[in-house]
From TrEMBL:
<comment type="pathway">
    <text>Purine metabolism; AMP biosynthesis via salvage pathway; AMP from adenine: step 1/1.</text>
</comment>
<keyword id="KW-0963">Cytoplasm</keyword>
<feature type="domain" description="Phosphoribosyltransferase">
    <location>
        <begin position="29"/>
        <end position="148"/>
    </location>
</feature>
<keyword id="KW-0808">Transferase</keyword>
<keyword id="KW-0328">Glycosyltransferase</keyword>
<dbReference type="InterPro" id="IPR029057">
    <property type="entry name" value="PRTase-like"/>
</dbReference>
<dbReference type="GO" id="GO:0003999">
    <property type="term" value="F:adenine phosphoribosyltransferase activity"/>
</dbReference>
<dbReference type="InterPro" id="IPR005764">
    <property type="entry name" value="Ade_phspho_trans"/>
</dbReference>
<protein>
    <recommendedName>
        <fullName>Adenine phosphoribosyltransferase</fullName>
        <ecNumber>2.4.2.7</ecNumber>
    </recommendedName>
</protein>
<dbReference type="InterPro" id="IPR050120">
    <property type="entry name" value="Adenine_PRTase"/>
</dbReference>
<comment type="similarity">
    <text>Belongs to the purine/pyrimidine phosphoribosyltransferase family.</text>
</comment>
<dbReference type="InterPro" id="IPR000836">
    <property type="entry name" value="PRTase_dom"/>
</dbReference>
<dbReference type="Pfam" id="PF00156">
    <property type="entry name" value="Pribosyltran"/>
</dbReference>
<keyword id="KW-0660">Purine salvage</keyword>
<comment type="subunit">
    <text>Homodimer.</text>
</comment>
<comment type="function">
    <text>Catalyzes a salvage reaction resulting in the formation of AMP, that is energically less costly than de novo synthesis.</text>
</comment>
Length: 172
C-alpha cells in the first residue's frame, strides 16, 4: 500500500504559496492508517523506547496510537501555557521570532528512552527543540520519526546525532 495515496496536498494553505500535506484523509481510511502505524512501529521498535513523545498537535495523532500499539506510555510536548501543573520548557528560534515547547516536569525521568514523533518534518526547528528539551530532562532520545518528510527543507540536518525516519518523502 502506498501511504502517499492517502495524503492530499492542499495548495495555498495556510497562506498563499504553501502546499499543505493533509493527513486527515489518511486518518479516516482505516486500512491505510493501520498500515501507517504498523510501518512506524517497525521503525520505532528497534530503538527500544520506554516512552513515546508527540509534538502538538498532529504529532499526538501519531504518537498516542503508536504508544498503545507498542505497549508504551505517551508524553505530550506542547506550546506555551497548555499543560497543567509544574512544567519545564525550552525557547527556540523560528525563521522570524521565537517559540517555546513545554512538557510536564515529571513526564520523563533520567534514563528514559524516548522516541519523538510528529506528523511532518519540515525545517526541523520544533523537532530539534523537542529533542533538546527531553535531553535536558535527563531522557535519552535515540530516534525521531514522522509520517511525512519535506526533504527539500533539510530539517533532518538540524537533528544532530538523533536517528530519523519517515514513511513518506516529498522532494519539492
Amino acid at each position: 500500500m502506498d501511504i502517499k495515496d492517502h495524503i492530499r496536498g492542499i495548495p495555498d494553505f495556510p497562506k498563499p504559496g504553501i502546499l499543505f500535506y493533509d493527513i486527515s484523509t489518511l486518518l479516516r481510511h482505516g486500512p491505510a492508517w493501520k498500515e501507517a502505524m504498523r510501518r512506524l512501529a517497525e521503525v520505532v521498535r528497534p530503538h527500544r523506547p520506554t516512552l513515546l513523545a508527540g509534538i502538538e498537535s498532529r504529532g499526538f495523532l501519531v504518537a498516542a496510537p503508536l504508544a498503545l500499539e507498542l505497549g508504551l506510555g505517551f508524553v505530550m510536548l506542547r506550546k506555551r501555557g497548555k499543560l497543567p501543573g509544574a512544567i519545564i520548557g525550552l525557547n527556540y528560534a523560528l525563521e522570524y521570532g521565537t517559540d517555546r515547547i513545554e512538557m510536564q516536569a515529571d513526564a520523563v525521568k533520567p534514563g528514559d528512552r524516548v522516541v519523538v514523533l510528529d506528523d511532518l518534518l519540515a525545517t526541523g526547528g520544533t523537532l530539534a527543540a523537542s529533542i533538546a528539551l527531553l535531553r535536558q530532562a535527563g531522557a535519552e532520545v535515540p530516534a525521531a520519526a514522522a509520517l511525512i518528510e519535506l526533504t527539500f527543507l533539510k530539517g533532518r540536518e538540524r537533528l544532530g546525532d538523533t536517528a530519523f525516519a519517515s514513511l513518506v518523502a516529498y522532494d519539492d
